[in-house]
Amino acid sequence: MGFGFAIFLKTNIFQSTFSYNISGECGARNIYLNDDLNKNLTSPRFPNIYPDDFLCEWVVNAMDEQLIYLHVIDFELEAGYDFLTLGNGKDSTNSSTRLFSFTGNPKAVSFTSSMASIWMNFASDRSGGRRGFYIQLSQTDMGDYGKYTLRLF
Fold first, then answer.
1. Could you tell me which of 61, 40, 28 has the C-alpha nearest to residue 136?
2. Does a structural domain hold residue 25?
3. 129: CB partners within 8 A, 6+ apart
4. Distance between CA 15 and CA 64 in Å, rounded?
5. Is 124 exposed, middle or buried (0-12, 13-18, 19+ CB in 10 A)?
């Protein structure tokens, strides 16, 4: 049995009436790409099942004159219920900056930002956790990419 996935472009994700748990399991909120090394970002407890009723928020920052390259190594969320949402800049509360949301199990995704900062939110509902995600982050020269691109393989 295969896993499905969905990508929602510039849409509002499901908002529930219960409160999410934000904790240290998310790691540092601000991620700085200030060297030539890749940084890894994982969902809480990866590769084990992530917690229910959970929210993680990150802001990824490249150096001046740099863009952010994101490559998904492993990704499995509860399709249609748990989401990883990405947007331009540092303000995830501004819905106009939202680019897309991932859910389910895309096989491979890579993304190059159009700005030196992106925000990322991971939200799980009250049940049905999965393995989560493992993402590599790096920075690239602005000359390499003009606009953000999304590639699904």
1. 40
2. no
3. 49, 50, 51, 52, 78, 82
4. 34
5. buried
Query: Is residue 34 one of the residues assigned to a domain?
Result: no
Containing structural domain, residue 128: 5-13+40-152
Give the pLDDT score at 5. Answer: 37
Q: Tell me the pairing of strands 132-141 and 30-33.
A: unpaired
DSSP string, 104-134: E--S-EEEE-SSSEEEEEEEE-SS----EEE
Flag residues of the chain having pLDDT under 50.
1-22, 146-147, 153
Among 115, 55, 52, 56, residue whose Cα is nearest residue 88 = 115
Residue 107 lies in a domain: yes
CATH number at residue 129: 2.60.120.290
Domain tally for the chain? 1
Record the pTM: 0.79
Q: Is 142 among the domain residues?
A: yes
Asked whether 145 and 112 are in contact (CB, 8 A), the reply is yes
Q: Give the phi and the psi of residue 97 in degrees, each rounded to 5.
A: -90, -10
Strand partners, 98: 87
Q: Three-state DSSP class for 97? A: helix
Q: What is the pLDDT of residue 72?
A: 92
